[in-house]
Amino acid sequence: MDGPNNGIVLYHYSFSPYARRVLWYLALRGIDYAECKQPPTMPRPDLKAIGVNYRRIPILAIGRDIYSDSRIILRKLEELFPDEALGATTPEGKAIQKFLEIWTVEAGIFVRASQLIPTSMPLLNDPKFISDREEYSGRSWNKDQIAANRPEAVAAIRNGFKFLETTLLADGRNWVLKTDKPTLADIEAIWTFDWLNGLKGGLPRELISEKSYPKVFAWIARFNDALKTAKGQAPKPVTLDGGAAAQRILKASFAEKNLSFDPADPLGLQQGAEVEVFPIDSGSRHHDRGRLVGLTDDEVVLSTQVKATEVRLHFPRTGFRIKAVSAGGSFKL
């Protein structure tokens, strides 16, 4: 890709579980990139500076193409940097990889994992953090509510450990797809369980431990060893402040030369229509608006202006809503 650090700028904060998926991928691939660290709570003026209202982390820019949501970020890294990509190559492998993505991201495994955040965490005594997460999730982060949700969350996560122990890892393989090194399928499967394993007080060790699920915990340890080795060999990311990151992005070219548009899409939207896009599961109050320039069964792309410079905002279709906007600024229902 053109530009320094492959034209990549990753916006993230250090303890974001979703950002770790992308950080792991970049390290395992040895892809050079720049990063712009963000606060864990709103506001994030660095993202406003590149035309992004979307509030979730991570955000990844490749040139003037900006990708929101870790699912589309990983897919685009696979497509735009195809040499020695980590994705599955067989139909069966691709199916397993996709189902693991759906299981952890869309089917609720991580949501349940987030309900195991211990009430002793210092952040849960920070009113700003609590208010931010309640606005983000649309649910209470009251300590009593968190405690009340814990038994159901433990049952769901224990079932997840059991699934991995007795199916994909049951035959003693090192990696999910029986490869000689971790692949994207491992990232899709492991990120929630690795995060919980490293979260002090997150897992009830009397129920979920190396003793009860030895294959899963051995896999987690192997993955972290492989990741440590990869990080030692990968280029160290350049850290940019918000101003430098925005300047780099706005002066770059587009990473994607041709965008697809499906005229038969069920929404019946026309190319060039003014629309708003926003997630419907969390962070749904933060809408991005622009001209609809790309639309497929798994992606929507908006064109918007930042200081008279065009940038493109890319979102997945799953979990996001696209609404046409009238000339007066209100939704067309």
UniProtKB/TrEMBL annotation:
PROSITE patterns: GST_CTER (PS50405), GST_NTER (PS50404). Residues 90-253 form the GST C-terminal domain. Residues 6-85 form the GST N-terminal domain. GO terms for cellular component: cytoplasm. This is GST N-terminal domain-containing protein. It comes from Capronia epimyces CBS 606.96.
